[in-house]
Amino acid sequence: MTTDIADIQVGTEVPALAVQPITRTTLALFAGASGDHNPIHIDLDAAKEAGFDDVFAHGMLSMAYLGRLITSWVPQSQLRSLSTRFSAITPVHARPTCTGTVTSVDEVDGERRATLDVQITLEDGTVTLRGEAVVAVR
Q1: Predicted pLDDT at 5
Q2: How far, in Å, CA of 112 to CA of 121, rounded?
Q3: With 90 as the cut, is the pLDDT of residue 7 above it?
Q4: N or C: which end of the chain has fewer CB within 10 A?
Q5: Distance of CA 69 to CAs 14, 41, 97, Å?
Q6: CATH class belonging to 10-134
Q7: DSSP-derived 3-state class of residue 99
Q8: Residue limits of the MaoC-like domain (predicted)?
């Protein structure tokens, strides 16, 4: 998919990505795929010992969802940068929704680039991740 610069302007919203509820299986599979076997993400006893009520999602899983949001909108080859800041945990059973809004469109290094504010919000309004993405737009 390509995104035409004529259609992108400040305020353009990326189609939201609603993620399936985070399950214990999701966390176990992500631990295996990522190599991040921190027990607070997959072992209830370890999570409770660390002061949490239950296991919770890996921060990098949330960041991967934001990457999926962006690459569902423009091809991966057009992604120039993605930076994020974690602001809250994503509990097991949460239903994250990823969103993005164009905040600027500029000429950089000879190509048109859109800067987006991106974030993940849970059903209760908690924002778990905020960030910025830059994509080349053609």
Answers
A1: 53
A2: 29
A3: no
A4: N
A5: 8, 23, 10
A6: alpha beta
A7: strand
A8: 11-111
In the chain, where the domains are located: 10-134
| SS3 label, residue 12 | coil
Angle between helices 24-34 and 59-73 (to 10 degrees): 90
Which pLDDT belongs to residue 78? 95
CA distances from 36 to 26, 27, 39, 48, 75 (A): 13, 10, 9, 18, 27
Name the residue among 46, 45, 53, 57 with its Cα closest to residue 89: 57
What's 91's DSSP letter?
Answer: B
Q: Is the dihedral of CA 9, 15, 21, 22 positive or negative?
A: negative
> What's the rounded Cα separation, in Å, for the pair 3 and 24?
36
Whole-prediction pTM: 0.90
List, in sequence order, every residue forming a beta bridge with 111; answer none if it has no partner.
108
Q: What is the DSSP letter of 60?
A: H
Give the burial string for 16-36 (b: 16+ CB within 10 Å, else e). Answer: ebebeebeeebbeebbeeeee
Tokens found for residue 99: 């969103």
- Structure confidence by residue, pLDDT tens digits, 58-87: 999 999 999 999 999 999 999 999 999 999
